[in-house]
Amino acid sequence: MKLSAPLATGLILVSCCPGGQASNVATYISKGNVALSVLMTTCSTIGAIIMTPLLTKLLAGQLVPVDAAGLAISTFQVVLVPTIIGVLANEYFPKFTSKIISITPLIGVILTTLLCASPIGQVAEVLKTQGVQLILPVALLHAAAFALGYLISKLSFGESTSRTISIECGMQSSALGFLLAQKHFTNPLVAVPSAVSVVCMALGGSALAVFWRNRPIPANDKDDFKE
């Protein structure tokens, strides 16, 4: 797509990020398999500690210097530490977690909104000059991920699982990509693709979820998924 090295690096970085938590909500709306969605998000998130730095180094290392060790440490801090804290809190302080569980979904929605808005706000000036040329590459990245996730899954799985895998493939953790770009790359342009990705991912995933919401799962679906 003839992108400059910093923008190409940012696009590679966001494509190497794990599935975003918003994918679980989109899967629920689309009548997919929510349990599978949560499992996939968890596995890709844990795997990202190794795979995101490794893939970014392999794919973008020739464009700009990539600190794989630094990326791994930051991914561990941002992704795995909060997950461990949540699991331990639920295990050792069940009374406390049972009291706050009714409001945590709302908190999650608010925080997700802020995480999506923050990257856009921080690079607003750069987006005015560089954003237009990124819309097509980023949109193609997510569209290809949605399409390939669904079509390849249909070869072996039923409708509900295929929808789930499609959404998991297409909805990346763009906020994580933005954070890593800001912390580990000196050129601010590396963070711009992640900011554009936030919008494309949210719009594409939401539109796909609503589209599938209005298309019921076949009664003879091979996954035997019950609504």
- Structural category is mainly alpha
Return the domain count: 1
What oligomeric state best describes the polypeptide chains here? single chain
Fraction of residues in helix: over 70%
Helix/strand order, N-terminal first: HHHHHHHHHH
How are the SSEs placed, and which strands pair?
Layout: H1 5-15, H2 22-29, H3 34-60, H4 68-92, H5 94-100, H6 104-122, H7 124-153, H8 159-170, H9 174-184, H10 192-213
Helix pairs in contact: 1-3, 1-10, 2-3, 2-8, 2-10, 3-4, 3-8, 4-5, 6-9, 6-10, 7-8, 7-10, 9-10
What brief labels describe this structure?
227 residues; mainly alpha; Na+/H+ antiporter like fold; 10 helices
Description:
With 227 residues, this protein is an all-alpha fold. It has helices at 5-15, 22-29, 34-60, 68-92, 94-100, 104-122, 124-153, 159-170, 174-184, 192-213. This is Bile acid:sodium symporter. Keywords: Membrane, Signal, Transmembrane, Transmembrane helix. Its main location: membrane. It is a multi-pass membrane protein.
